[in-house]
Specification:
Layout (H helix, E strand, L loop, with lengths): L4 E3 L5 E3 L4 E4 L3 H10 L1 E6 L5 H12 L3 E9 L3 E4 L2 E4 L3 E8 L12
């Protein structure tokens, strides 16, 4: 198994580039970033904490000290007479070592 491959489950192999879906940028995540040096990402539902840690460390060149994950359950939505449901999704809160930062809006 190469370094870039990560075993998510016994059946599925996913590359590190598929683990992080997107960073979540909102008021609450901004407060976590400012007060606790924590960053919030939407991640693949099958990703483990170790997978998220490896992906963040590789792509952003930072040292991760802690990862917390949670699953947000999809809400029921109604359009006319049809009742549907949004998909569940997984969120990861990543704590970086002191002095480390991630700049999402860096100039390329």
């Amino acid at each position: 198994m190469s370094e870039e491959k990560s075993v998510i489950s016994k059946k599925v192999k996913v590359g590190l580039h598929e683990i992080i879906v997107r960073p979540l940028i909102n008021e609450k995540s901004q407060q976590l970033r400012d007060l606790r040096n924590q960053y919030v990402f939407e991640v693949a539902q099958t990703a483990s904490k170790d997978d998220v840690k490896a992906a963040v460390q590789k792509f952003f060149n930072v040292k991760v000290t802690d990862v917390r994950t949670l699953i947000n359950h999809g809400k029921k939505r109604r359009v006319g007479q049809t009742i549907g449901r949004r998909s569940n999704w997984k969120k990861a809160i990543v704590t970086l070592a002191q002095g480390q930062t991630i700049d999402f809006f860096a100039q390329a």
